[in-house]
User: What shape does this take?
Amino acid sequence: ITAVVSSEDWHFAPLVIVILGASGDLAAKKTYPSLFSLYTSGLLPKQFKIIGYARSPKTILAFRGHVGKYLSNDNDKLRFLQNCEYINGQSYGDEDAFRTVNEAIQNFSPVANKLFYFAIPASTFAVSAKTIKNTVSGEGWLRIILEKPFGHDLESCRKLTESLAESYNEESLYRIDHYLGKEMVQNLMTLRFSNLYFSRLWDTQSIAAVLLTFKEPFGTDGRGGYFDKYGIIRDIIQNHLMQVLCLIAMEPPVKLDGSSSDQIRTNKVNVLKAIEAIKFEDIILGQYEGYRDDPTVPDDSTTSTFCALKLHVNTPRWEGVPFILKAGKALDERKAEIRIQFKDAPGASFMFDSPCPRNELVIRLQPREAIYIKTNVKTPGFSSQPVQSELEVDYNTRFGASDSKTNPDAYTRLILEVLRGRSAGFVRKDELEEAWRIFTPLLHRIERENVMPQIYPQGTRGPEHDVKVEEWGYLRNSEYVYYNGSVVPKSKI
Amino acid sequence: ITAVVSSEDWHFAPLVIVILGASGDLAAKKTYPSLFSLYTSGLLPKQFKIIGYARSPKTILAFRGHVGKYLSNDNDKLRFLQNCEYINGQSYGDEDAFRTVNEAIQNFSPVANKLFYFAIPASTFAVSAKTIKNTVSGEGWLRIILEKPFGHDLESCRKLTESLAESYNEESLYRIDHYLGKEMVQNLMTLRFSNLYFSRLWDTQSIAAVLLTFKEPFGTDGRGGYFDKYGIIRDIIQNHLMQVLCLIAMEPPVKLDGSSSDQIRTNKVNVLKAIEAIKFEDIILGQYEGYRDDPTVPDDSTTSTFCALKLHVNTPRWEGVPFILKAGKALDERKAEIRIQFKDAPGASFMFDSPCPRNELVIRLQPREAIYIKTNVKTPGFSSQPVQSELEVDYNTRFGASDSKTNPDAYTRLILEVLRGRSAGFVRKDELEEAWRIFTPLLHRIERENVMPQIYPQGTRGPEHDVKVEEWGYLRNSEYVYYNGSVVPKSKI
Amino acid sequence: ITAVVSSEDWHFAPLVIVILGASGDLAAKKTYPSLFSLYTSGLLPKQFKIIGYARSPKTILAFRGHVGKYLSNDNDKLRFLQNCEYINGQSYGDEDAFRTVNEAIQNFSPVANKLFYFAIPASTFAVSAKTIKNTVSGEGWLRIILEKPFGHDLESCRKLTESLAESYNEESLYRIDHYLGKEMVQNLMTLRFSNLYFSRLWDTQSIAAVLLTFKEPFGTDGRGGYFDKYGIIRDIIQNHLMQVLCLIAMEPPVKLDGSSSDQIRTNKVNVLKAIEAIKFEDIILGQYEGYRDDPTVPDDSTTSTFCALKLHVNTPRWEGVPFILKAGKALDERKAEIRIQFKDAPGASFMFDSPCPRNELVIRLQPREAIYIKTNVKTPGFSSQPVQSELEVDYNTRFGASDSKTNPDAYTRLILEVLRGRSAGFVRKDELEEAWRIFTPLLHRIERENVMPQIYPQGTRGPEHDVKVEEWGYLRNSEYVYYNGSVVPKSKI
Amino acid sequence: ITAVVSSEDWHFAPLVIVILGASGDLAAKKTYPSLFSLYTSGLLPKQFKIIGYARSPKTILAFRGHVGKYLSNDNDKLRFLQNCEYINGQSYGDEDAFRTVNEAIQNFSPVANKLFYFAIPASTFAVSAKTIKNTVSGEGWLRIILEKPFGHDLESCRKLTESLAESYNEESLYRIDHYLGKEMVQNLMTLRFSNLYFSRLWDTQSIAAVLLTFKEPFGTDGRGGYFDKYGIIRDIIQNHLMQVLCLIAMEPPVKLDGSSSDQIRTNKVNVLKAIEAIKFEDIILGQYEGYRDDPTVPDDSTTSTFCALKLHVNTPRWEGVPFILKAGKALDERKAEIRIQFKDAPGASFMFDSPCPRNELVIRLQPREAIYIKTNVKTPGFSSQPVQSELEVDYNTRFGASDSKTNPDAYTRLILEVLRGRSAGFVRKDELEEAWRIFTPLLHRIERENVMPQIYPQGTRGPEHDVKVEEWGYLRNSEYVYYNGSVVPKSKI
Assistant: This one.
């Protein structure tokens, strides 16, 4: 890949990366390490500069010290930090300060590509964009990376979108959903379209249900203030899980790498267009026991920390197939998974005189990336009864994926995509709006009616939802145990 | 399974097993250990007796000593041997001797199930059957196990079949093809019919080619006399590989365990009926360098030790799909495998701007049973190019299949089937005849024209055949390396 | 076809046809006209003789006069009748009389093929067969044609079968189900297997329901005595409709014309084996108003003159597809039809913002043979709404099928098959037994519990059953009108 | 439909239709009759005015007389003509004259929807548009209808597009391809997506080849001047047939009537994007004998009057399926047809011991709209051989489609679509450009190398092309005769 990238035009041009919100958490945890990772992999242009911008006054050295804390120790660390500068301003509308930024850019190179990373609250997006427009000049492209939340309902999303559109057109805006940077999510199109056996089975004729799961084993841990205003649907489902759903459900693009044509995003929008607004009776809400004990959470909060819901994609490919999205905090484990459950093998239970569990394709996004298909085999030995096993590829075992070089962080991947001008992995404004269209009536009703979620104990699978999920069409095979690559005890065969 | 078996009728009845050819190799290596294995697993009836019969005079103790040599040391060994007796006769037509056998049976129990194991040359089958018919009496079933070769062409096969039919009807005859006793072969119907994803892909719409391979890393080792008269086609392809082919290609039976209905065998015969006699231009013959140095092989032998051939199954399911059968001695490795190669993922090479290798389902019969599907994934990391990996279940890792309790020998499995009266795993006479119909014209032409096979060096993949096999429709992906569960070196990703 | 037939061996051999029950109704209405039709088509051997046998004394001339009444006027009529003779006997066990028959045969030709047509009550089958066996001799094949009823439940059927088996083996017995002689029924395999578009759609993935209908517009008309003992299930469903069902549901044979292999019948039996005994809750029974007024019917008769029922064929191909069988007397029209209703076009109702009726393949057996597929097209003109029309082939319009030369009677076709030794179109004993196995428990329960059917007015669609049929899975499109080839009035488009 | 239309907003607003080129052929033959037809069907708004514009001075009465000549006699004719006015100008850039037009509009109604119909040469499109922009004002929408040719290669097309874009945006421009107004072309999406049996078969798994044919029985008839500059590829194939191809090959839209979303056109563009530029070896060119005798054609013209070519749509749905486009003048008949040829029924030729012709779906666009599927049935009568027949719906017979009320002219349909603002049936600029991208290299090479087409006699099927077409993958069944609804002579069955 280094060979490919280093022959691309932008790689020969000077590059300035301006990080708004340079003192914040996001910049520290994601932006700096990702840029450093690109640097050490030789994926940044030779000539580059990083300018931190924030409100607090800080010397360049102090800034470098701050950034350095978040980088792994490496011979290249010092050389990387020498490319970092810092400028502070009164606000994100401080035109004088931004003019200083512009001067720094011009001094670095009059012709330079410019990447503005908005590691700042969404409320400051519009003013920042406007100020940049008014102050930053010079040849070379100018791109902006934005982070969620992109509004809290359809109307607020539209307002945000429109206010940004006053300064920059859609092509310059790269909205990050970091799920689109995960190895297994990026893998979805390769899996679906380069494998006959998946491409042939990927529709309502073969698929009984699709289940997307996000589970966290911890709660808000005393920092529930932000979360409480959003809740699990806005925090995880409406964006991350819906993005994954789109990639699972979309029609094939003509070309995979069609950065210009924007076809992948158009196909994703078409998935959303085929989804009707979620019905209230198709959701289950939960709140973990003790959530309100978080001092930053109101004592009477009805915010959900768990949600399972069902929706349908009304296209010829998916007619009748339930998509079940499930996310929760303070559950029994950490896991993000895609489960494609296939239909019953026709006639099998009659032929074998016993029920045959369904095949299921599991794509584990985290932790420990893996793909496996639950598959029935004859019970080894004298018996002729079927038993469920699995065909698997574990990315650690097969590709050494625990190594961050092999398996770079989502942010690192996505920033590289921005630099390369490949927009397919970012969220277009019509995707945002369609996603909000689907969820807004539900969210408004929950708020209006102050719906109380079911309370569930921490460390469990969440509130009772298995029966409902089975009604929706996903069958759990409670007999099956996943042995994660180890030998099954004989007593269990 | 022990629970199931021990509740079946036959398990409560006395059982006598008479082994004709009790001094021979087959009995020693397969029959005794298998019976002992059934015994130690509690699968033989409480009341049983084993009677060895051969021409050499021997005391019972000597016989027990002989048998004992082939059994693993186990506390049960002595008790097992106490059930063994020995009777000798002039020949397999010696009615007096067989009457002595009958007396021994009557003495043991006037009512007893009787299993005659013909571990003797095929030329003595008919006379043995006739003598048994004339001398052995008493209530209880009487079944006969036969071993290949069942003739050397259509005519000789028919003669053999007819001479046996004079004494016993088809229901009493159990013709062993030990490939039908292998775990992965017995697994085929479960794989095909209890898994939606295989059942849906199992036809000409999705499958490009089927490849059955048998490879041995050694030659005849000085004992080529028998082999030279048969050659690799008769030794491996016409029976073992064709049996496997039938199970891959057959239509679904109504019930899997329909011992009475005999439906599985009828469906297998229908596969054979849909195959036309092999064409001479559809085969490649080879003989390994040094084969004729075997002192038991004629100096001018044109017997093939390698053969690859193509045939078609002319049913709606298989129209146009080449079945390629390949077997050889003195090759580079020991392996028996089924490879189901799927068609190209439609449109993928255009979409990915690069060729995408084909999916392939590999079922490894031996050594180390495993199932894997070659599957394209995104190259892990920054790249978006597809690379071929595999989803796999390895029976050693998953089921501890290196343990003979978990994974009993083919003979052990098959003898149990005979005792249970389940005939589906044995070769019916019309299967034999259809298989010979397919091969006889080819074999006769090779012999008539004294066709000389290509010479290939020992320890190689055999004579040049890859180009032809590709013409037939099976594409080798030479880029792909099978890592057998270990991590792929980074340089290879 | 005349060319093909006249080159077959049997066509050069002398043929004797002996009709037992020569004075009866069946012989008069079906046997004589069919033989005459074969004769005028040049399909009988040059040298043939017809011998009528019955209990009433009659001269040959009288017999010829009797036969002649049932033949169309034709130049060939006289010549045909000159080949007819008559012999009478005391009973169907009268060996002397049958010896006379044998003499007549010998006199005609010592070497002759012999066809015995049993146009007699089933109660006389066994004795007739035995008498023939004891008296008739000479070279040439001997075949027997039998007519239903073949018993009235599983046990009586087995008895009948066994008593016949004592005299003749299965290969000599040709059991007629005249539905197997209908053009459209004989067409089924060609339709299914020679057309890609049917073969590809012929399974549970595409088919929602199969409906087989038999409707008669008249009741028993004063001759209900026989019918009352049997009822509509035994009279129509258990035999005729089940035979049609088997041909619809069966797996493909290797060869269509495999007279010897008997594969088609084996595949039909496998369909029956995959059907469980009908459940009482899966039937609807009816009796038309006035049925008991028939003087030959008991005043308290609970015999059904209408039945609709549902069953499942538990094979991979048909899992989940309801087969609905419906037959009735005194209904609104005369019709026998097969309806294959396809599933909803996936996603169509969402795409078109309106429900799209299902496709349906209709095969009309009688009257006026036709095949059509209900197909949605755009409403012609400015509208873009879908409307249901049909693609059709009408056998009268396309093939002139109202002409009996083009479209010979079922009996004529079947008698020719017997002469040619093609048994695929006749009912094998295991088919009979499996069919009875499916219906016997139901029939016994109805009789044991004296279940009263719903009364329905004559000339209607029968008792209320549409709701139930819809629950079973077949949807009626009440909007659709079948215009039978004529232009749809504009107001209806 | 009248009910639907008359409730739409535009139908209540005043409407002005300005026809540029009011004296020309196109206006006379298509525009006036279509507008009149809409008028008599009640589909024009109550308040409407038609303004003819051309360079020749003419009184309003004379104009009305001119228009009247092209209208059918009808009671409404006079009332219709009273709404027609005429204005003449110096040129299509005559701003004064256009101001007069604007005044006439304002006088009619200050608020009015305005439709400009460009029945003028493409060379005057840009200036006309610009003049309109500069002169015409007032509330209400303004839409422009354009007619081909849209350039003669990629570059000229782009220029034309760009010059128009300077005055009006894409949403206001309605480019007519009158093939998109044909009943059967408009029917394509209903056929494909509302019928399970077509939707399930519509891909490379079932379809062997797609053939689009346009045949005219006459040549240029002395008016070849225009044609000679374009040739058959530009005249018929690059636009009309490619438009039809797009509708056949496109992926399903989410909604059929998505006027706003423009999804159908996006999906059509995606089809074009998946087609590579036509290869020179994949075409056959012809010129009919006598073409150069046309006095308006150069004596050494190498212009093609016939072309057959093959291309591929490289999507998952169509991988490997040849699309064959064929158009010609002076051939044996008038016909425009779509032929979808299905693959061989798998295994059928082995099962039937005879070749079974392929199914073929034929959609006849003209003359006499019809849809039929060539289908194999058993030869009626005694034979069991398959013979090809067809299931058909003939629009004349079924819907009385010879009546222009039922089946309005393409122009009438399309003008109504413009009025309703439904743009899906018009050609978007990226469609134009992609279509030219595919054909331009080929056209340029033909011109550069002055390639001489094969000469073929008038009234024939064109130059020899059947062998090539068969190589490409379309098999002609020469045995088959289409009887057009009439009975097949017995000798032909």
